[in-house]
């Protein structure tokens, strides 16, 4: 009996040894699991590893610190712009505009912090918290998809470049001066237009690349054929583009929040009530003010 037991034990040990040896060989048993057999596995491998392991998180951290520092300096040195709330009010945004803007705002409020949590997943300890953030990120993406189409269609005409945008850039919209004088801008200034294009077109690309990463096991044969990429190449490129665009979007979103909440006192209320103060429109959106005056929609 003892000999039989020893023989069985040796047989099992031999099978484990055989299996370990075959893990490194090209056999029908192990082909599916061998990572080296994935087509073009090394393509973008070094770039991916370098960017993800050494630069992406660092760039994101530097961007956040730089933007917050700039906000603090601007608030302490220049201070917020304040406009009279005793004058006439100008109807700026319809209920429909405010609704899809609200949905977009909620989505970005969730997308940005959860995106950073996933980027610094190891720092946050991984596990349940990071997984919850991943699911919240996906949910917020759905909200953004709902808002992006009406946002694009409703505002695209007002967001087209204009000659006075160059002058707005030259004076940085007047935000570096304490003096209140009319600024060359339409209903949306160059800063808002820039954020619009980043949010809409950059956001659309973020949705696509995020989808490639979120649905890792989807059947992407058609997409791979269209771009001439394997799934691992598509995944790596998507991650690189998504991360860099995410940093850019986060910076612009931060600027947008600062301007609406802190840099211009009461500005955020226009997206709640739909009305802007007349003085604010006259100073910060002078070309739109002239347009409204010419149409007799306000008294000059």
Summarize the structure in words.
The longest helix is centred in the first third of the chain and has 33 residues, at 45-77. α3 (95-119) crosses α8. The chain has 300 residues and is mostly helical. Strands 1-2 form a two-stranded antiparallel ribbon. The protein folds into 2 domains: 1-37; 40-93 and 156-294, Fumarate Reductase Cytochrome B subunit (Up-down Bundle). Mean pLDDT is 82; it is low at 1-6 and 8-37. It has helices spanning 2-22, 45-77, 95-119, 127-155, 164-170, 190-214, 221-227, 231-263, 270-273, 278-284, 286-294; strands spanning 89-91, 275-277. It is a multi-pass membrane protein. Its EC number is 1.17.1.9. It is found in: Cell membrane. It is an enzyme of class 1 (oxidoreductase).
- CATH homology group of the largest domain: Transmembrane di-heme cytochromes, Chain C
- Sheet with the most strands? 2 strands, antiparallel
DSSP helical segment count: 11
CATH-assigned fold name of the largest domain:
Fumarate Reductase Cytochrome B subunit
Membrane topology: Multi-pass membrane protein
Enzyme class: oxidoreductase
EC number: 1.17.1.9
Main location: membrane
Write the SSE topology:
Elements: H1 2-22, H2 45-77, E1 89-91, H3 95-119, H4 127-155, H5 164-170, H6 190-214, H7 221-227, H8 231-263, H9 270-273, E2 275-277, H10 278-284, H11 286-294
Helix pairs in contact: 2-8, 3-4, 3-8, 4-6, 6-8, 10-11
InterPro entries: Cyt_b561_bac/Ni-Hgenase (IPR011577), Di-haem_cyt_TM (IPR016174), FDH_cytochrome_b556_subunit (IPR051817), Formate_DH_gsu (IPR006471)
Signal peptide: 1-19
Subcellular location: Cell membrane
């Amino acid at each position: 009996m003892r000999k039989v037991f020893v023989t069985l034990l040796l047989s099992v040990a031999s099978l484990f040894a055989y299996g370990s040896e075959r893990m490194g060989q090209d056999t029908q048993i192990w082909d599916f699991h061998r990572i080296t057999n994935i087509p073009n596995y090394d393509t973008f491998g070094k770039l991916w590893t370098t960017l993800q392991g050494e630069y992406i998180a660092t760039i994101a951290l530097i961007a956040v610190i730089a933007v917050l520092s700039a906000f603090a300096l601007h608030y302490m040195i220049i201070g917020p712009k304040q406009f009279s709330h005793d004058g006439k009010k100008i109807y700026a945004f319809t209920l429909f505009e405010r609704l899809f803007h609200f949905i977009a705002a909620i989505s970005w409020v969730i997308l940005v912090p959860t995106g950073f949590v996933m980027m610094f997943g190891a720092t946050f300890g991984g596990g349940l918290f990071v997984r919850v953030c991943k699911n919240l990120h996906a949910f917020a993406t759905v909200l953004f998809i709902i808002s992006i189409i009406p946002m694009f269609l409703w505002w695209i005409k007002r967001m087209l470049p204009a000659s006075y945008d160059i002058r707005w850039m030259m004076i940085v919209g007047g935000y570096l001066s304490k003096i209140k004088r009319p600024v060359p801008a339409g209903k949306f200034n160059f800063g808002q237009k820039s954020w619009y294009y980043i949010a809409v077109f950059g956001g659309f690309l973020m949705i696509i690349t995020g989808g490639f990463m979120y649905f890792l096991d989807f059947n992407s044969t058609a997409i791979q054929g269209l771009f001439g990429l394997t799934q691992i190449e598509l995944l790596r490129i998507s991650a690189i583009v998504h991360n860099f665009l995410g940093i850019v979007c986060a910076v612009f979103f931060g600027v947008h929040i600062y301007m609406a909440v802190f840099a211009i006192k009461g500005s955020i209320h226009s997206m709640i009530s739909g009305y802007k103060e007349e003085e604010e429109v006259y100073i910060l959106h002078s070309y739109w003010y002239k347009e409204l005056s010419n149409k007799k929609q306000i008294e000059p």
